[in-house]
Each structure stands twice: as C-alpha cells, then as structure tokens.
Design brief:
By secondary structure, this protein is of the alpha+beta class. It has 19 helices and 28 strands. β4 and β5 form a beta hairpin. The radius of gyration is 34 Å and the shape is elongated.
Length: 580
C-alpha cells in the first residue's frame, strides 16, 4: 500500500508501551478506592467503558491488569476481541484503574494520539489479523503479546492524526446520537404499556382477572402436514435481537432439512425463549413475514398464539417486561446450565385482562414505533458502513489528502520533529513505501540529508537494506567477508525487521549493498584483519553508512567544477540535483 510521503511505518511497540506496570512509588494505600473495569463493562458496539465499578486497591492489587487515563484497552480473548471490545480509558477515581487480565494495555507515547491508536486496533482488518495470531485452544484463545509487538501501523504527523480523529469523532457522535434515538424508541414502548395497562398483575377497577392462558394458546399443536420440499422460514435463537425483541433475519430452508427436533409456528405467534440466559436477556419476538406462512425454530421456544381477545403486540410487551422475566426466572426448573421456564408457569400466570379495544390502540402505536425503528436502524446501518469506509480511507491517507495539501509547512515541521523524536528513543520506523517499486517516498521540500533524493528512485528492497544498515545496525559497519558477522546482520531479529517480508537470501542482501554503494548511498570500504593461521594481514570487504562529510562530497565537486569551467554555468545542469 502506498502511503503519503510524510508518513512513516512504525511498530506498535515503538510508539506505545504495551502492558506497562505501575512503578513502586505509584502504588497507593490499600484502602484507596480505584476504578475497576471487568470485561463486561466495555461496550463492544461503541467502544467505551460503559459500566465501571469502584473497588478498594487492596482487592485489585494482585491478579488484575492496571492502567491509567489515556491508555487504550484491547480485549485479547475470543470472542471479545473479534466483537470489538476496546476502549480509551477516561477519568479514573484517584487516577488509577484495574481490570480484567484479558485486556492488553497500550500506553501511547508523544508520537501517537490515543484516539488514533483506538481506531487503528478497532478496524475489522486489524481484528482479523489478530485472530489469525491466536494462541491457545477452544474458547481460551488469546492474542499473544508478541503479535502486538510486531504489528506495524502507518504513522502520520500529530496534526494530521488530530485532523483524522476529529472527522471520525464527528461520525461517531452521529452514530451515538442515532443509538440514543433507537434506545428511546425501545423505552417508549414500555412507557406506553405502563400508560395503557399500568401493572397488569395488580387487581384494579372493573377489569376481569384471569390467566395468561385466557389470552393465548400456549404451545398449540400444529398437525397439518407439510411437503418435505416446501420452503419454510427457519429461526435460530441467535436471530432474535435481545435489545429490541425483533427478528433480524430468517433463514430459508426446505422443510426436510429441519423436520426433526423443531418448534413450529405461524404468522403473528409470539416466540418466548424458555432457556437461561436467553429468556433473561429478552429473546422474545413476534413471528412475521414467514415464507409460505410457515415458521420452524429451536425447541427452546415456547409459542403463544393470540386468542380472539388478545393482540400479539400486547402479549409480546407483557412478557418482555423485566418484572415478568424475573418472575419466570424464579420458576426455572432443571439443573445449572440447563434451566428452563416450565409451561405450567405460563399457563397459570395471573393478570388483569385488558379490553380488546385498549390492546388494539396499544398495538397500533407499537407497529408505528416498529416502523420508525426500522427506518432509524437502516440509517444507522448506513452510518456504520460510512464509518468503516472512512476509517479505511483515514489509514491509507485518502481522508486527509486535501488537508495535507493545505498544511504543507505544518506537516514539514512536524515530520522532522516526529522522526527526530523516534530516533532519539531508538524506535524503529521506515519511510512510507510505494506499492510496487519506490522506497522512502520523501517529500522534496523536507530538510532531509543530502543525496536522499535517490531514495525516491531505488526499489523497496534496496530502501529496506539501506534502513537496516543506516538506522538499525548498531555497529554501523558490516563486514560481508566475515561469514559470522554477515550472517548476524542478515538474521538478527532487532535489525532485519525492514526486510522480514522479503524472505531474502544473504547473497541478495550482499548484492544490494553493492548496488547502494555504487549509487553513493553507502560507503564500500576495506577492513584490515590479521589471519590467525598465516599471520598475514588480509583486507575484507565491508559496508558502512556515509559520514556527514561524505554526504556533501559530490555537491562540493559540482560547485568546484562550475568554478573551474564558468562556461558551463549557463549550460545544461540537469545532471546536478539541487538537493545535493
């Protein structure tokens, strides 16, 4: 992928601390209260810490992950990681936070904004890469620390990062506002239920007292035959959204595929999950839009078929209320992990029977709200698609292309400051590479060392080897005629990260060093060494980065040539590059 000229590629470990520890002097007294974040407290839909807890430091000092304000939390365990459980740590009680051991903690340095880092790790593409690196078995697979240490991210300057974050934040605010509207519509249904029916379990006025079985046939038999080749709507438990109580999508199947072990239902039936925890979570829905009018689903559903004196919307809202689900949970039968609501509880559930006219009025309002919910959810879907597209364009540089063009001076200054800061801390980074050929695509107006214009002309592999020698190899001299020393240069993990994806042989590396020396980008030298066997001095071929004086040698030669040959001053100077 071709990145903008002012960007670099850096490893995650070089722009943030990964899983940092508290220093001894930072540890508080045992009775100090701190913020605690279990995995369940992170909202995977919007990426925020929604429900933090407060605990004493003594309770969390051992066996938990610690973090500070501004850190980025990244769930490392499946399925939380794939679902997007990540968040930026906001204000903490007494400035200290602890949480699940299933979090990796990323603490940004001065070169990267927390929000930029957050959007990078929340990308679907990044989570897919992280999942491919899982270690462990079954449901205990985790993203290893080694994966985060090796990951590279595109790194713009801080002003450009801020621009990207501002745009993405605006879209996030729109999505959050839409979420709030959808949540209010859900709440409106139950506010209307309370207005129409108050608490139906309490006797009041002249309304008739009765049983739930007076309003619905519960698990009615359906004995009419179905052709095995008949297409039907199949409903797995997972297809019911537990927040809205609506069916996301049916699967269309031939009846012969599902005829064994199923619950059958028809249009307008209310499906009530009888198993824990699905029932407590609100997996209760109205069956509508069935293929050929036939529905088939899990055996873990109870089916309510409205009688002539009841509406499906009333039965649905009645049974989705928290008070009803709590009473149903108290009636559970079965052992732990296999608890179910018995049919006898439903048939004997007592309530006031509201008039059919009142139920009809309520149902009409519910249907109108469902229509508005569908419209809002469609808009939300489009916003999320736009968000995904914007994030992709942000990390390839397209989102801020026009902004960069208007802020060249600011970017130039920030580029130099960022590169110097990274080098001072010993961070590893490479200039952005073109997709096929060019290597460090440096801007012509940046104050780069002399001769670096050539880095725009050489291949990606040549640029990577140049980076290894000039910025990664601590000895600053590689003796290619010494097999042991040269092998270390070609295989050292701390040095070879720029070329690790090329799978290059030592011979190819040596040829590339020769080419770079021929271009004048590095120096080829002879190193004297005494042969222990013959006691003779031998001269071994070696390569090293150019010294400061050598960087300007050709420019000095060109200037001297101009002075000695003044007639050439007005001639063709196309071979003399201004950046020398």
């Amino acid at each position: 992928m071709k990145l903008p000229n002012s960007w670099v590629e850096a490893r995650l470990r070089d722009v943030c601390q990964i899983n940092p520890k508290f220093e001894i002097e930072e540890r508080p007294e045992e009775d100090i209260q701190v913020t605690f974040v279990p995995m369940s407290a992170v909202d995977e839909n919007v990426g925020v810490i929604a429900k933090p807890e407060i605990r004493n430091y003594s309770e969390v000092a051992k066996g938990y992950t610690n973090f500070k304000e501004g850190d980025v939390l990244f769930a490392k365990v499946t399925p939380c990681m794939e679902n997007g459980k990540a968040a930026i740590v906001g204000p903490l009680l007494n400035g200290l936070g602890f949480g699940s051991t299933e979090f990796h903690v990323l603490r940004p340095t001065d070169e990267v904004l927390p929000e930029y880092l957050f959007h990078f790790i929340r990308q679907p593409a990044f989570r897919t890469r992280a999942a491919s690196a899982f270690v462990g078995t079954g449901g205990l697979q985790r993203v290893p620390l080694d994966f985060l240490s090796r990951v590279k991210l595109p790194l713009p300057t801080l002003p450009e990062q801020q621009r990207m974050v501002d745009v993405l934040r605006l879209l996030d605010d729109m999505i959050t506002a839409r979420n709030t509207q959808i949540s209010r519509l859900h709440s409106l249904i139950f506010l209307l239920f309370a207005e129409y029916f108050q608490a139906p379990e309490v006797s009041r006025g002249n309304e008739k007292n009765g049983l739930l079985a007076d309003l619905a046939w519960i698990n009615p038999p359906l004995d009419s035959p179905i052709d095995l080749q008949q297409e039907v709507s199949f409903l797995p438990m997972a297809a019911i959204d537990e927040v809205s109580g609506r069916i996301a999508k049916y699967e269309t199947k031939f009846f012969q595929e599902v005829k064994a072990g199923y619950t059958r239902f028809v249009e307008n039936d209310v499906l009530f999950a009888k198993i824990s925890p699905c029932m407590e979570n609100g997996k209760i829905a109205i069956a509508q839009g069935l293929k050929n009018g036939i529905g088939v689903g899990s055996t873990e559903f109870h089916v309510f078929r409205p009688k002539p004196n009841a509406t499906a919307e009333f039965l649905w809202a009645l049974t989705r209320r928290t008070v009803f689900r709590k009473m149903a949970a108290r009636a559970f039968i079965g052992t732990s992990g296999h608890q179910r609501v018995p049919e006898s509880f439903l048939k004997t559930y007592k309530l006031r029977i509201p008039t059919f006219e009142k139920q009809l009025a309520f149902s009409e309002n519910v249907r109108n709200i469902f229509q508005e919910l569908e419209r809002q959810e469609n808009q939300q879907f489009l916003l999320k698609k736009s968000s995904q597209a914007l994030v992709i364009s942000a990390f390839n540089g397209e989102l801020t292309e026009a902004w960069r063009a208007a802020h060249i001076k600011e970017i130039t200054t920030s580029t130099i400051e960022r590169d110097e800061s990274l080098r001072e801390r010993g961070s590893k980074f490479a200039q952005s590479y073109a997709e096929s050929k060019s290597t460090p695509t440096l801007q012509k107006d940046l104050d780069r060392p002399a001769r670096h214009w050539l880095l725009n002309e050489i291949s990606e592999f040549q640029g990577a080897v140049w980076t290894m020698l000039c910025h990664e190899w601590p000895q600053k001299l590689v003796v290619v005629d010494d097999p042991e020393a040269f092998n270390d240069f070609c295989t050292n993990e701390q040095t070879t990260w720029p070329i690790e994806h090329f799978n290059a042989s030592p011979n190819r590396v040596r040829r590339t060093l020769e080419q770079l020396a021929a271009l004048g980008l590095i120096a080829k030298v002879s190193v004297p060494r005494q042969n222990a066997a013959t006691q003779q001095t031998e001269y071994l071929t070696a390569f090293r980065p150019l010294r400061e004086a050598e960087n300007s040698r050709l420019r000095d030669a060109a200037m001297l040539n101009n002075e000695l040959n003044p007639s050439e001053k007005s001639g063709d100077k196309s071979n003399i590059r201004g950046s020398w």
